[in-house]
Amino acid sequence: MSKILGIIGHPIGHTKSPVLQQAALDHLGVDLTFDAWDVAPEDLAAKVETFRSPDFVAGCVTLPHKQAIIPMLDGLAETAQAVGAVNWVIPEEGKLIGHNTDAPGFLRALKESAGFDPKGRSAVVFGAGGAARAIVYALKTGGAASVAIANRTVEKAQALAADMTDGRFRPTALGLDATSLADVVPYSDLLVNASTLGMEGGPGPGLSPVAAELIPAEATCYDAVYAPPETPFLLEAERAGATPAGGISMLIYQGVVGFELATGREAPVKEMFAALGVRE
Ligand code: NAP
């Protein structure tokens, strides 16, 4: 039987992971095929059972399964536990362990592609959904001094802030209205859009979470949204004279971290960027 390695999602047609992962496997001469499996929610448990085969290498997990898969696994790595979502399943000593590579992937993208180290710096994260959870956790582990979570539904920002709070790290929560944003955005080193605003096909395709007038020229502005590559938020950042960085690097680095977990090999980062037609 052939080895089991691929991504589960529903729908699955849009995913860039097979191209990204296959490029890395081929470059290193690893004789494996990275598949894409369209798995409806009602078929998820049966699919996960197939991962218990000795031929299972690793499974990448995308929408809508990142949380639903958790009770089907035998354990969670620390980051997946903290973020509350799984995007890679790796077999370890006969057990299926869920990992989250969105958080370390964001941190590597921020440092290596955007050239920004969050240690000791202040940040505002727009949004409080799945991407925001990973990003706020990444900023926490990256040593950020302060993080404000700005979300349309303030209660969700408050819940995320409470989940991430510990003795050292105490994120604050606020609304997405201009008055609330004016209290924090102009004084922040890093702004991250983790909402769906600006996303092609999303609820606000032409919208930025914040206007240029509030963005400081010294700020780095990272948009987790990567389609389109030039988002409304990044255009506002440019208008403010700030440093814009698009979300494709987070997508690639979550794959880099996942590839390294799955294969135990150092990922060929340059080739993975090239596979998606992006410069590192
Ligand atoms: P999600 O869990 O559905 O969260 C959506 C967020 O957007 C919530 O905070 C929601 O606010 C906010 N929102 C939605 N419509 C809004 C509107 N009309 N006005 C203001 N806020 C609105 O989504 P997600 O999984 O976090 O994904 C967010 C974005 O990140 C997506 O574009 C996704 O493609 C991107 N992403 C990128 C990567 C990457 O590797 N680059 C990884 C993961 C996600 P409420 O709470 O008020 O509803």
CATH architecture tag of the largest domain: 3-Layer(aba) Sandwich
Low-pLDDT stretches are none
Highest-level CATH class of the largest domain: Alpha Beta
> How many distinct beta strands?
12
Distance between the termini: 37 Å
Order of helices and strands: EHEHEEHEEHEHEHEHEEHEHH
Largest sheet: 6 strands, mixed
Write down the domain tally.
2
- From the alpha carbons, calculate the radius of gyration and give it in angstroms: 19 Å
Q: Percent helix among the residues?
A: 25-40%
Structural class: alpha/beta
Shape: globular
Q: Average the pLDDT over all residues and give the rounded result.
A: 96
| Total of helices | 10
Largest beta sheet: strand ordering: 2-1-3-5-6-4
List the ligand species.
NADP nicotinamide-adenine-dinucleotide phosphate
The CATH homologous superfamily of the largest domain is called NAD(P)-binding Rossmann-like Domain
CATH topology of the largest domain: Rossmann fold
β-strand amount: 15-25%
